[in-house]
Amino acid sequence: MDAEDSIYLSIELEEGAGARDIYRVRCVDGEYGVPESLGSGVNSEFNDNMPSISSDGQIMVFIRRGHPGSLGISDVFVSRLNAQGEWGEAVSAGPNVNSRYAESCPVLSHDGKYLSWLAGSGAYWVSTSVLPGEA
What we know:
It is globular, with a radius of gyration of 14 Å. Helices cover 0% and strands 42% of the residues. A hairpin with a 5-residue loop joins strand 10 (103-108) and strand 11 (114-119). By secondary structure, the protein is mainly beta. The chain is built from no helices and 12 strands. The chain has a domain at 39-130. It has a 4-stranded antiparallel sheet with strand order 6-7-8-9, with no helix packed on it. A 3-stranded antiparallel sheet has the order 1-2-5, with no helix packed on it. Strands 10-11-12 form a 3-stranded antiparallel sheet, with no helix packed on it.
C-alpha cells in the first residue's frame, strides 16, 4: 500500500503485456476500484510480480522473471515515479542486489532506506542508496 491506500499487485489479465503484470487498485472514499495497469514502463512481456512500494509512493521494486541479460532466473527491478506521476522505465537493481540465484520477495522498509529480499537459501538487505536512478 502507498500513502493514498492504493494496493499494488501482480495478476494475469487477458489485456496484460505479459504472463503477469503489475496493477494498482486505488482506494476512493473507502472503496477499492478496478485494477489499473502501471503501463509499459513497468510491465513487460516477461513475468513481472511481487511489487513492493515505498511508503511515500516514489519507488517500486519487483521481480522480473525471464528478462534477457538477467543475472539469474529472476531479478529485482526498480521503477521510480516521475514528475508527471507516471512510473518510469524499470531497470535492473544491478549486481549489488541480483545474483545467479532466483531473487524473490523484495520489500522496501517503511522509511524507504532499505531493501530486503530472498535469494538462494538466504535473506539479504542493502541501503536503497545503491539502487539505480535518482534518490
